[in-house]
Design a protein that fits this description.
single chain, alpha+beta, 5-stranded mixed β-sheet, 3-stranded antiparallel β-sheet, rod-shaped
Length: 172
């Protein structure tokens, strides 16, 4: 090996070492950025990924006087990442008119975490029917992500799921 070949090999090694030294601060900044980004994201549930589902009820006969009714929300295990809190919106529709709309955030009972099988009863009220005609009462829900909750997003009509349906009797 002549002097030129020997020195070019050493020069290449020095260049590789210098490239690595120049890349280290960038790699450290990238890793710090990922740590910061993950730290700003909503915390994950240590008990596992969870989502919420709704019991579906139909063919309910509601008296003329109306009253308080409820639907059930259940925490279920999912295969995707879940959030600590369950976010959803629901609306009570009477004869195709929205009577009540609300956004809900579910916390675990006495703590911040949802566990598999936790249930919540969400109450809503149906007013008295002043008409002699019966009317259709529907409750629709839409699950929201954390980002949708934070940004005030409301789902398009086709995204809503009917979970409760009944007929309210009319006055005789």
């Amino acid at each position: 090996m002549n002097w030129f070949e020997k020195n070019s090999y050493i020069y290449c090694q020095i260049e590789v070492i210098m490239s690595i030294k120049r890349a280290v601060p960038s790699i450290i900044l990238l890793l710090l950025g990922l740590v910061w980004f993950y730290g700003c994201w909503p915390p994950r549930n240590p008990n596992g990924p969870f989502d919420i589902s709704f019991h579906h009820e139909a063919d309910i006969i509601i008296p003329v006087e109306g009253g308080k009714y409820s639907f059930t929300v259940v925490a279920v295990t999912t295969k995707s990442w879940g959030e600590i809190l369950g976010y959803f919106e629901y609306k009570v529709i009477i004869d195709e008119e929205v009577y009540h709309y609300e956004r809900k955030r579910l916390d675990g009972p006495g703590e911040t975490h949802i566990n598999n099988g936790d249930t919540w009863e969400i109450e809503f009220e149906i007013p008295e029917n002043d008409s002699s005609d019966s009317r259709v009462v529907i409750v629709k829900t839409h699950i929201l992500s954390w980002a949708q909750w934070e940004n005030g997003y409301t789902g398009a009509d086709y995204l809503w799921d009917t979970i409760w349906q009944g007929i309210q009797l009319g006055k005789e």
